Each structure stands twice: as C-alpha cells, then as structure tokens.
Amino acid sequence: MNLPRLSLFVVLAVLLGISTAGCMDRETVLSGDDATEVLAYAEPIVDNLMQGFNEGNYAKYSRDFGPEMKQALDEAAFAESREFVTSRIGLHESRGDPVVTKTGEYVAVTYRAKFEREDGVALRFVFEKDDPSHRLQGLWFDSPMLRS
Q1: SS3 for 56?
Q2: What residues contact 123, with CB distance under 8 A and at least 6 apart?
Q3: pLDDT tens-digit profile of 116-129?
Q4: What is the pTM (predicted TM-score) of this model?
Q5: Exposure letters 79-114 (e unless 16+ CB within 10 A, then b)
Q6: By C-alpha distance, which of 143, 139, 131 is closest to 49?
Q7: For the stretch 44-58, what's the b/e string if a residue is b when 16 or more beta carbons lie within 10 angstroms of its beta carbon?
Q8: Strand-pair partners of 125
Q9: Which residue of 18, 21, 24, 118 could cross-link 104, Cys pair, CB 3.0 to 4.6 Å?
C-alpha cells in the first residue's frame, strides 16, 4: 500500500471536514417528513456506493460523487483506500437504521454498519441540502480498527 497516497486522502478528507465545519451551524437531527425526503435520494446512492465498494468497482462507487469528491478520490485512491479498509475490517455486510442530520447548508446520513470483521462501523454520507442533483459531497468510514 502506498502510505503517502493514503495519507494524502486522509488529509484531504480532514481539510474538507474542517473547511465545511467552520461554515456550519449546530447539527440538528431530522425526523418525520424531513428525514424521509433525504432518505428517498440518499438510500439508493448509499446502496449503489456500498455495492461498488464491495465489488471494487470504482465507476459504480463514484457514480454519485460531486466534482470535488471525484477529484479527491480518483480511481487509484479508491483502490488504495479500499485495500486499507478491507484488509482491516473486510467487506460491508449490512447497516442499521440511518440517522439524518442537518448542519448549515448540508445534510448527512449516518449508519452503524457491519463489516466482515467489525460491527458498529460509522458510515457518514454528506450532501448539500439544496442540491437538486444530490451529489455526494463527503464520505467517511470510521471505526476503532480503521484508526489503529
């Protein structure tokens, strides 16, 4: 695995998170019709992305990325980050109920997911609230085994 390349990806993700966090208000949990509206477009995107992840299919995985995401996570970076994740926790098996939140101009859908070797992995998918194309603006996998 090319550690400098993976480090670059992590740095880009952190910088994206910091830059957007500075512009955001407090995170609010959405429920009812507001959450249902977000999940109507987010769930098919998440299903497709996780299927592409498991298959190692970058075209499927990145289909709904916004331009910044495509630039930050190209096919080579995907292969490296996928290898990192699968070598530690395996492939994605299932995910629990989503939690939908709103912060400033963004909405996020967060799941606790089961992978082959770890349960409770946090998967977070971020979208711009008023983007009619529903392009993915941020994506995070987080767990103790991925941080060790």
Answers
A1: coil
A2: 46, 50, 95, 110, 111, 112, 113, 140, 141
A3: 999 999 999 999 99
A4: 0.83
A5: ebbbebbbebbeebeebeebebbbbeebbbbbbbbb
A6: 139
A7: ebbebbbebbbeeeb
A8: 109, 139
A9: 24
